[in-house]
Write a structure and sequence with these properties.
The complex is a heterodimer of chains A (111) and B (112). By secondary structure, chain A is mostly beta strands. Chain A is 0% helix and 57% strand. In chain A, the strands form two sheets. In chain A, strands 2, 4, 5, 9, 10 and 11 form a six-stranded mixed sheet that branches. Chain A has a five-stranded antiparallel sheet with strand order 1-3-8-7-6, with no helix packed on it. In chain A, a hairpin with a 2-residue loop joins β6 and β7. With 112 residues, chain B is mostly beta strands. The chains are: A mainly beta (111), B mainly beta (112).
C-alpha cells in the first residue's frame, strides 16, 4: 500500500461548482500536511498547509481527519483557472522525517 | 526574485552519456532536494541535502550522484544515462527541512 494515496481523477466540473478531493495516508506518525498545486508542465507550488483545526483561504478549505487518516481539499465556486493537478504532501514529524508526495488529483473546470 | 533556478531546461542524451543538472537558490534556504516526476506519478525523492555539507539518499538514488557545492548550489549528476532515467527533474529548497518547498521550473530529460 502506498504511504499517500489520492484519487487520480480526472475530476471534470463546470464553473461555479464545488469539488472536494481526499488524500489518505497510512503512517499514523504523520504530523504535517500540505496541498500543492501543479499546472500542466510546470513546477508544484504550495497551495496551503493543513492544520488540525482546519483552515480556509478564500475559496479553498483544507481539513484533517486524524482518526481516519485523511486530509481533504474543498474548492468552492470553481474557476477555469483552478484547473490543475493537486498534490497532497504528508510529513512525519521527526528530525529525519521526510515528506511524501501523493500522485496527484487532476481537476478540469469547464465553462 | 529568482527563487530556485535549474539548468538546463531541456536535454536529450544518448544512453551511456553523462551530464550534470545544476540548481541554485537565492533564498538562503538550508535544505535542498532533487526529485524526479514520471508521467502520471508523484514526485520521488532522489537525493537531498538537509544542510550545507550533508547529502543523503532518497527513495530512488541508483544511477545518480549529488554535490552540495555551497549553501546556494546543489547539483545532480548522471554518470551513465539510461532510458529509465527519462523524466522531469525538479530541484527544490526549503528554509526548514521538509517544510514549505520552493521548486525550480524543472529539467525535461530524454535518454535515447
Amino acid at each position: 500500500r502506498k504511504e499517500v494515496e489520492q484519487d487520480p481523477g480526472p475530476f471534470n466540473v463546470p464553473e461555479g461548482a464545488t469539488v472536494a478531493f481526499n488524500c489518505t495516508y497510512s503512517n499514523s506518525a504523520s504530523q504535517s500536511f500540505f496541498w500543492y498545486r501543479q499546472d500542466c508542465r510546470k513546477e508544484p507550488k504550495l497551495l496551503m498547509s493543513v492544520y488540525s483545526s482546519g483552515n480556509e483561504d478564500g475559496r479553498f478549505t483544507a481539513q484533517l481527519n486524524r482518526a481516519s487518516q485523511y486530509i481533504s481539499l474543498l474548492i468552492r465556486d470553481s474557476k477555469l483557472s483552478d484547473s490543475a493537478t493537486y498534490l497532497c504532501v504528508v510529513k512525519r514529524d521527526t528530525n529525519a522525517g521526510k515528506s511524501t508526495f501523493g500522485d496527484g488529483t487532476t481537476l478540469t473546470v469547464k465553462p | 526574485n529568482a527563487g530556485v533556478t535549474q539548468t538546463p531546461k531541456f536535454q536529450v542524451l544518448k544512453t551511456g552519456q553523462s551530464m550534470t543538472l545544476q540548481c541554485a537558490q537565492d533564498m538562503n534556504h538550508n535544505s535542498m532536494y532533487w526529485y524526479r516526476q514520471d508521467p502520471g506519478m508523484g514526485l520521488r525523492l532522489i537525493y537531498y541535502s538537509a544542510s550545507e555539507g550533508t547529502t543523503d539518499k532518497g527513495e530512488v538514488p541508483n544511477g545518480y550522484n549529488v554535490s552540495r557545492l555551497n549553501k546556494r548550489e546543489f547539483s545532480l549528476r548522471l554518470e551513465s544515462a539510461a532510458p529509465s532515467q527519462t523524466s522531469v527533474y525538479f530541484c527544490a529548497s526549503s528554509e526548514v527541512w521538509g517544510y514549505g518547498y520552493t521548486f525550480g521550473s524543472g529539467t525535461r530529460l530524454t535518454v535515447v
